[in-house]
Specification:
Blueprint: E1 2-6, E2 15-19, E3 29-38, H1 41-47, H2 56-63, E4 77-85, E5 97-101, E6 112-116, E7 121-123, H3 130-133, H4 136-150, E8 157-161, H5 166-177, E9 181-186, H6 191-196, E10 201-204, E11 217-222, H7 229-232, E12 236-243, H8 249-261, H9 275-286, E13 294-299, H10 303-311, E14 318-322
Parallel strand pairs: 8-9, 8-11, 9-10, 11-12, 13-14
Antiparallel strand pairs: 1-2, 3-4, 3-6, 3-14, 4-5, 5-7
Length: 324
């Protein structure tokens, strides 16, 4: 099968399209023929080993000391069709159209991926494309986790920092679904898009400091760890909530490393991988209440160009990779 192999730590050019062995599902796994995947911030972090200094050595131990040898294919989320199932699989059948998150195993930059049936897998909403479905299992699930943690009530005011990215665009729409008053913070080029997906107010961070506007919020959700509580608290109402704990690959590495060093059971790849969350996102997308914002689409053969574009900053929503 075709796959983009991660040959060493470094810039986008370290990604190479190669022929590799097609995987076969174990008894509890499904084999997914991938139609679309995405380029996430987590892929950027791992490709260049841009993780916090304290976790660079653990990352190298987990992935490979001098180059990635244990995990050779990046990609955290996908959408596709189940081509084969292991003999113990009960939830899924050949032909099912699904979206999925791969967790620390990565591997979505390929034509096929095997995943356990009890992993982060959901049935694709019937009325959306594979490209739209490919972004749900990271951006959608993470956004839903943030919104639920904020415990927003109808009419409450929420500020979403970095609202124009993959997680932020879902978070803004979900906050509106739960009847909050949404203020979206991002750069100039993303403001019109944020208005188009329902943001009540927008702030251009390149021109204005949200902490000096005199506006206060019931919740501030920073989906990209751009601010801090000490800086943001002046814009919080009394007893307001500040949330800033994006789940990137750095955090996954921390979890796996902790489980190894403390001799505990392997941690779950996704804290958000619960069946009810997947079902809710599917329901909302089928009802047209939320949608995937797609900035650009690249074929798998142009993965290097896609990584360059994302790394340059400024993407609106998601960058999707199609796998033909």
């Amino acid at each position: 099968m075709k796959a983009v192999v991660w040959t060493k730590y470094g810039p986008p050019d370290v990604l190479q399209l190669q022929e590799v062995e097609k995987p076969a599902p174990k008894d509890n796994e499904v084999l997914i023929r991938i139609h679309a995947t995405s380029v996430t911030a987590g892929d950027m972090e791992l490709r260049g080993l841009k993780v916090p200094i304290l976790f660079r050595l653990p990352a190298r131990i987990i992935l490979g000391l001098m180059r990635p040898t244990r995990i050779k294919i990046l990609g955290q989320e996908l959408a596709g069709e189940i081509e084969a199932v292991g003999k113990a699989v009960k939830r899924y059948s050949v032909g099912d159209q699904v979206f999925a998150g791969t967790g620390i195993s990565l591997g979505a930059y390929a034509e096929y991926k095997c995943l356990p049936e009890n992993g982060v897998i959901g049935m694709k909403p019937a009325n959306i494309s594979y490209k739209e479905a490919a972004a749900i299992s990271m951006g959608g699930l993470e956004a839903l986790r943030h919104i639920r943690k904020a415990k927003l009530q109808p009419g409450q005011k929420v500020l979403i920092i970095a609202a124009g990215g993959s997680i932020g665009t879902f978070a803004a729409q979900l906050a509106k679904h739960f009847q909050a008053e949404v203020t979206a913070l991002d750069s100039t080029g993303k403001l019109e898009m944020l208005r188009s997906i329902g943001a009540d107010h927008v702030i251009d961070y390149t021109r204005e400091d949200f902490t000096k506007r005199g506006e206060t919020y019931d919740a501030i959700i920073d989906v990209a760890s751009k601010s801090s509580f000490s800086r943001s608290k002046r814009a919080l109402k009394q007893n307001g909530t500040f949330i800033s704990d994006q789940l990137g690959l750095s955090q996954m590495i921390r979890g796996v490393w902790t489980s190894v060093t403390k001799r505990k059971k392997r941690v779950k790849d996704y804290r958000t991988g619960r069946a009810e969350n997947l079902a809710l996102l599917k329901e909302l997308m089928e009802a047209g209440k939320i949608k995937t914002v797609i900035d650009r689409t690249y074929p798998l053969e142009q993965i290097v160009d896609a990584h360059r574009y994302v790394e340059a900053g400024g993407k609106k929503g998601n960058v999707i990779i199609t796998v033909e």
